[in-house]
């Protein structure tokens, strides 16, 4: 009984080293169903995930692959949903799963999009991602073209659009992007819509962006104490900080300017480091600074020395 079980274990572990082929598999499409006719420009392409597929290739052409006049989209997607805004027209789209060594059969569907009033449409935004945390004073907002639009209106607010007459920014553009400068560390909400002479589209879903330029406070070194003599390896420790996402450790030779090793400065997620270099009697200097999630670097700690014993 032992040999068959061992064999099963070996076969099970092979999958971790040999990528399974997915050539005989097919992606099953959930939506839009084949030959769908719709007046909605923003389409959600949705399918069942295929085991061992790492990504999915989505291709869209008009009017069909046999007589394509234009390639609309050819992209790789992770997950099982893809949103894209189409103009009115006749389309054929297909999808297949892929991994590093093989791909599935294509699943191919027809789709017809009819022209409709812009008031029933929703604009598709591209960037920035919802919840973005940034320390850059200028951020580019971008969205997809919406058929029938003459201009696009971008609104940015700090009060979640409770009073639409008083917002942080309200600007129109004929372009598909707009750069916005932030002047104050704060959380901002933003949305965009398309407009024409007689109608406006629905607002996009409200997204959030946080602007943060405040650096973490100065790191406090703990041990070894200043000028201490200590045996190797030396445990360098400093106080962990709630506003820090990482730390940058500098270690210098006795001249206080030459980095001890090419691996320094070293970025760490924890508030300690085991220093295993050095020789007996050598004086070593070190300092640390912290960074937050927005990428702001705080000031350096004091430059402290220790002697290896």
Determine the N-to-C terminus distance. 59 Å
| CATH fold description of the largest domain | Immunoglobulin-like
Number of strands: 24
Structure classification:
mainly beta
Proportion of helical residues? under 10%
Number of helices: 1
Sheet-strand content, in percent, reads 35-45%
Average pLDDT score:
94
User: Mind telling me the CATH class of the largest domain?
Assistant: Mainly Beta
* Shape, per Cα inertia axes: flat
Superfamily at the CATH H level of the largest domain?
Immunoglobulins
Radius of gyration: 29 Å
What is the name of the CATH architecture of the largest domain?
Sandwich
Uncertain spans: 5-14
Task: Give a structural overview.
The chain has 309 residues and is mostly beta strands. The protein has three domains: 19-116, Immunoglobulins (Immunoglobulin-like), CATH 2.60.40; 119-211, Immunoglobulin-like (Sandwich); 221-308, Immunoglobulin-like. The protein is 4% helix and 43% strand. The chain is built from one helix and 24 strands. The protein has one helix spanning 2-14, and strands at 29-31, 36-38, 42-47, 55-62, 70-77, 81-85, 89-98, 107-113, 125-127, 132-134, 138-143, 151-157, 169-173, 177-181, 186-195, 207-211, 221-223, 228-230, 234-238, 246-252, 266-268, 272-275, 283-291, 304-308. The strands form six sheets. It has a five-stranded mixed β-sheet with strand order 2-8-7-4-5, with no helix packed on it. The protein has a five-stranded mixed β-sheet with strand order 10-16-15-12-13, with no helix packed on it. Strands 18-24-23-20-21 form a five-stranded mixed β-sheet, with no helix packed on it. A hairpin with an 8-residue loop joins strand 7 and strand 8. The longest helix is centred in the N-terminal third of the chain and has 13 residues, at 2-14. It starts with a helix and ends with a strand. Mean pLDDT is 94; it is low at 5-14.
């Amino acid at each position: 009984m032992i040999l068959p079980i061992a064999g099963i274990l070996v076969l099970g572990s092979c999958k971790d080293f040999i990528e399974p082929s997915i050539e005989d598999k097919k992606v099953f499409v959930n939506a839009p169903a084949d030959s769908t006719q719709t007046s909605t420009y923003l389409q959600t392409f949705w399918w069942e995930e295929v085991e061992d597929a790492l990504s999915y290739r989505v291709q869209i052409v008009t009017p069909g692959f046999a007589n394509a006049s234009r390639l609309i989209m050819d992209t790789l997607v992770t997950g099982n949903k893809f949103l894209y805004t189409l103009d009115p027209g006749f389309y054929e789209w297909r999808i297949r799963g892929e991994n590093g060594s093989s791909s599935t059969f294509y699943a191919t569907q027809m789709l017809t999009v009819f022209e409709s009033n812009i008031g029933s449409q929703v604009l598709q935004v591209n960037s920035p991602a919802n919840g973005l945390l940034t320390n850059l004073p200028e951020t580019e907002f971008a969205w997809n073209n919406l058929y029938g639009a003459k201009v696009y209106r971008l609104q940015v607010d700090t009060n979640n659009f409770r009073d639409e007459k008083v917002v942080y920014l309200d600007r129109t553009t004929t372009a598909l992007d707009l750069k916005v400068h932030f002047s104050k560390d704060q959380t901002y909400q933003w949305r965009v819509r398309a407009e024409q002479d007689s109608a406006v589209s629905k607002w996009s879903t409200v997204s959030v962006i946080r602007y943060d330029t405040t650096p973490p406070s100065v790191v406090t070194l703990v041990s070894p104490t200043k000028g201490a003599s200590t045996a190797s390896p030396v445990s360098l420790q400093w106080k962990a900080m709630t506003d820090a996402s990482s730390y940058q450790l500098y270690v210098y030779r006795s001249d206080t300017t030459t980095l001890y090793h090419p691996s320094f400065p070293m970025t760490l997620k924890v508030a300690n480091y085991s220093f295993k270099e050095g020789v007996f009697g050598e004086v070593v200097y070190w300092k640390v600074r912290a960074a937050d999630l927005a990428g702001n670097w705080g000031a350096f700690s004091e430059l402290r020395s220790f002697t290896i014993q």
